[in-house]
Design a protein that fits this description.
This protein is an alpha+beta fold. 40% of the residues lie in helices and 14% in strands. It has a 3-stranded antiparallel beta sheet with strand order 1-2-3, covered by helices on one side. The chain starts with a strand and ends with a helix.
């Protein structure tokens, strides 16, 4: 089973989502959103960019991995995505959504060009 996104209200009555792994561990928690529509855009942005995200190692040289296994680690309570990252993902998803609605599908353009040629 794959992970899932859960939408919830935080203590300040703001909407957030969290990515929960197949084992039930919380993998990421979003920033606060004012409405559900913004949450949906944020989830779409994470889905779009998650597979293409670069990994930057900010650990000091020579740092070793902890001896604690991943399954035994406590779930994260702090948001993994900072406000800047979520805002950037939101902007990317919004731009892609606008582009998808503005441009006809490529097969529609080909067909209309062929019809114009006849």
């Amino acid at each position: 089973m794959a992970g899932k996104f859960e939408v919830f209200l935080d203590p300040q009555s703001k909407f957030r989502f969290r990515l929960v792994g197949a084992d039930g561990a919380v993998m990421a928690v979003s920033q606060a959103f004012n409405d559900k529509a913004s949450v949906v855009v944020g989830i779409a942005a994470v889905r779009e960019c998650a597979g293409t995200g670069l990994v930057t190692d900010l650990c000091p040289a020579g740092a070793q991995t902890p001896s604690v296994t991943v399954a035994a680690a406590a779930p994260a309570t702090e948001p993994i995505l900072d406000d800047r990252a979520v805002a950037r993902l939101h902007a990317i998803a919004t731009a892609k959504g606008l582009r998808r609605h503005a441009d006809p599908a490529h097969w529609d353009r080909r067909r209309s060009r062929a019809e114009l040629a006849n």
